[in-house]
Amino acid sequence: MWFPSLVQILYLLFIGAQLYGLFHHFLSPSTGLVNNTRSLQIKGLSFLAFLISFPSIFATSLPTAVSHSTNTGLLHLLSWVFLAGSLTLYYWCLEITGQGHLSVIFGKVTPKEVINTGPYALVRHPVYVSYMLGWLGSLIAMQQEWRHNHAFFGFVRMVAMAVVVMGLIGLYREGADLEERQFMLNEDVVKGETVELGVRRKYESYKSVVGARWIPGII
User: Where are the alpha helices (DSSP H) in the chain?
Assistant: First the structure.
């Protein structure tokens, strides 16, 4: 009888969390998207990352999976930490933001409020950080197939996954840049609307307090 390993469970929870956010938690604005192409690229690359990583992470049988998942090697620990950290941060963000209060990435919206509590008191874009952690954790978990099962195919899949993850990180950065321009410069907001002066000043103050976009106290 087959049972998933801890890494496999965390990976499935990460994929499920992404689907929940996309289709349920984050708002798809009636005003549309600033960049439909980038939105499609995010979805396409995310799906491609799943197609690449799933067979690799689930390529191991129960005895091998159990022995590898209990291995205390650095790479195994890193995959646990990254995936578990991604889930913890993501659901913390969902709790703080509330359903339907934030737009999906690249949404054409006019910011109405500044969220500066919870994970937003540590970094300015914690949702995107959680995505990055999850995909990086998935990439690290793929080394199991490379090292223990099918070396050639495992290596090829890891390289392909690394390229896709780099593309996703670039798109998350673009989304973060857009959101900050919406707050600070009134760019790409809803036609005929402007960000209230009080909201803009509050965001300026928030940026001066929380300087880090991705890693607390660093960048």
Answer: 6-20, 36-57, 62-69, 74-97, 126-141, 143-148, 151-185, 197-209
Q: What digits encode the pLDDT tens for the residues 3-54?
A: 678 899 999 999 999 999 988 899 889 999 999 999 999 999 999 999 999 9
pTM (two decimals): 0.92
| The two three-digit tokens of residue 160, written as one number | 């392909």
Measured at the CA of 124, the angle between CA 118 and CA 128, to 5 degrees, comes to 95
Range of the domain at 159: 6-209
C-alpha–C-alpha distance, residues 67 and 53, integer Å:
20
Residue 16 lies in a domain: yes
Number of domains in the chain: 1
Q: Is residue 215 part of a domain?
A: no
